[in-house]
Design goal:
three-stranded antiparallel β-sheet; Cytochrome p450; 13% strand; alpha+beta
Length: 425
Amino acid sequence: MSVTTQSCHARPVVDFDHQSEQHAADAPAAFRSLRQNSPVAWSEHHGGFWVITRYRDVFACLRDPATFTSGRFINADGQLDGGIAIPPLPFRMVPDETDLPEWEAPRMLLSRALGPKMVVRFRDRARAVAVSLIDRHIASGSMDLVLHLANPLPAILTMELVGLPLDRWEAFADPFHAFPASRPGSVERQRAAEGIEWICGEISALAAERRKSPRQDLASAIVHGQRADGAPFTHEEAVEILVQVVAGGVDTTTSLTANAFWHLHAFRRDRERLIAEPGLLSLATEEFLRFYSPVQNEGRTVSRSVDVGGQEIPAGARVLLSLASANRDPEAFEDPESFIIDRAENLHAGFGLGIHRCVGSHFARLQFEIMVEAALARIPNYEVNEADMERYSSIGAVNGWGKMPVTFTPGLPSGSPDALGKGLG
């Protein structure tokens, strides 16, 4: 990454592409360089955007949703623009890609549905699913921690929460993994976008069915929900809310968990300490969120001319707010480039900040902690086959892994009935 100065606009210009393979190879180094040399800088990639990397600036921007807006729009060239991703997503997520007052009603509905009380109800179910997933491979002495545990568990629980059929979890999960894992313009991303279009159609059909025949699931609650003015959500709005739940539920928790499994392979002392002191997992969870930042960046559109870190950003500009960089800012964290498993003061941005902070954070923490607990209890001496593991080729949106095969000392199934049945095929 290079830094130059464009004198006519007195702005630092960087050759920075968060979606590139080069960036994925060493994102922490790229962000470290930006924080030190050009904490607010302009990139010409993806139509042009400002990249903001210091914790205090990212925090301030995300706490000012009136200036740094999340809504989508058609730009002067007649192209879709705005939203929370650069380049824009081919689908709209609600409430993340809305602004006040539209944001309020769907956010409040999801906050109630995904709050701490829901987490308590799902705890035993999540644990049973984790046991069943490991049971399917424990006698063989090998499995893939991404494909056989970190992918299916969040997807299955999300499908169950929403009211989608469990036996189709892979068809719903795979495109939402493949889309952020691939680069814009690639064949892989196009195929993933087509898969997501199919998912949107399936969710639309579910919403229509639940409007006629409601059940005790989140889809029914959403299609019969109301806007702030008391009017019911339209069919399109209900679908967009459900798309956000599915998209958020099946990929980011997977990515966080996969990074934790990799870390505990690479740093055995941390693994040994978690096994010996399971009570540390809550603190460790926050450090995994800080250090590995499953959601790396968030896009916004500037509604008015604004000063950020001494740099004037004009109205209408797109900005990329780097959560990953903020989470390693030495101004905000002591020894930020070190993973400290019992870090006590940890006001990280791993779940975002401000009104768009991850609405599913309680659900994500529950699933993550249960998967880590289950792996350390059942296959504590797992070894990652580093030659065959695969990282996402792009981590511009989500910092994830495609595969993580492991070997371990074979064991016996738990003896408990399969908690999934036909859900895994």
